[in-house]
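Lecture notes, unit on protein representations.

Consider one protein chain, 332 amino acids long.
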Amino acid sequence: MLISDKQKKILMVLADGQFHSGTELAEILNVSRSAICKQFKGLSEFGIQHCAVSGKGYRLDYALELLNATTISQLLSKNHQSLLSTLEIHDSLNSTNSYLVDYAQQHAASGIVCFAEHQSAGKGRRGRTWVSPYGSNLYMSILWRFQQGGIAATAGLSLAIGIAVIRALKQHHIDDVSLKWPNDIYSQGKKLGGILIEVSGETDGPCSAVIGLGLNLFLPASEAQTITQAWTDLTTVTGIVPVSRNQLAATLISHILTIVNGFETVGIQTYLDEWRSYDCLQGHLATLYIGQQKIDGLVEGIDDNGLLLIKRADGTIQAFASGEVSFSDSIV
């Protein structure tokens, strides 16, 4: 599903969040008033909410700032620009991760960064779909190639990427954020964003990682009806639209590139203390799900390899490398 040129022109006009008459839009697009109505019906399929008021015209439910590759690139330092091979902005993809996984299989260069304004089949953990309405959040993936240590060298990478996201948010004075093992961004006890890393390559040789991030800036409740866990967005967390999408996109790229560029040399150990300072699970009762297995206990943080530590009812502490955690008690 692709957004049409006419629909894109409508969005450019309505991006200010103000009313614009059907006559004005029809003149800009050189189409009839009835054709404008059809264009808006198509926009609804992308999750773009709007209202139409007689005598006033059409208005988006929220102001829209579309991503711009030139703007983002200019906000990057020369060092970070040098680490990029390509910066792509797409109107719609099935999934930014799937797109770059295909690139990786075609031996594409390291440092490709891909954003999509909309995802028709965004990837979440355990086969879930990441809800991805057009133009309101950030959906991005980065292809990075590691030359040493093989797949084992990427152990703990999702934890380190979580730190990059927190650093980026704090740079924009968004401080009420934390990390939930192994790859969720949390705020006020609710999920704000998620990280999905797909690794392929050799056990002991070169490998590639596609690092995906979905971050909620403004998620309309009407679009979130299929989400089965507590969620939030930056607008809710801060009470306002907290930052330009293009600025935040550039800041995220910068912090993620800083970490991946040296990760195979320093590993997760460099980031353990910082990750622990953002940990929202430690000290809480939780349930870890690994396939059909269910493990209950008190979370004791992470060990020096980034594994989750759970204290069982009998007092023993076990370490886990993977799984999905749900809180058994409430957090704030």
